[in-house]
Structures are given as structure tokens and as C-alpha cells.
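User: Structure please.
Assistant: Input sequence and predicted structure:
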Amino acid sequence: MKTVAEQMKILGAMTRIGGTFDDFFAQSAFEIMQDAALLSQTGFQQNEPSNEATRAKPAIWADGSDFNARMTRFLADIDAAVLAEPTDLASFIPLFAVVSENCKSCHERYRAPKN
């Protein structure tokens, strides 16, 4: 999920005033997110991790079906963004908004705050 977060930062910077949109970087970031999110979904379906390096809440495993459904929607949103191949800021912003909102909704429920 750290890879997804890194790509979200890159994409988010493109939406800010003064940010520069680059269709190649946007497409690349969406594709990297696509691969990383798919790996993450598989990883979270495993048993609860024993290390302390995660901010994932135990609720992910306690209510796995909800988390899995959210990850499936997140992946579908990323897939749609990849297929859309945004070429300018006007076509990119709505795609990014859907992906980031989905990401945020999962964090609110399944990610612990930073210490």
C-alpha cells in the first residue's frame, strides 16, 4: 500500500494549482497503483500480520468481506482510470477524484492514524 500512497501523491500534485499535468506520468502512476493494489488485496486476504510495521487495523481481518469488497471497487476504479488514458487535466480530475475518494473511505475504516 506504500506504493499506492506514493503514486497518489504524484497524481494529487497534478491536481493542485500550479501543478503540471503529464499524461505519461498519470498513466504510469495509475498502472503502478493497479499492480500494487492487486498485490495488497491478495496480501490482506492472508492471516493478520505479526509485525508492528503496519497501520492496518485488525478490522480488516475481522470483517474481511467488507474490506475485500472495498478493495475490489478500488481496483475497478483504477482499472477504469487506466483504460480511460486521460490526456489532459479535464479528463484526469474526475478519474482521480473517484480513485482518491475510494482510497479515503477505506482509510477511514481500516487504517490507524500515524503515531
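The CA atoms of residues 12 and 96 lie 8 Å apart.
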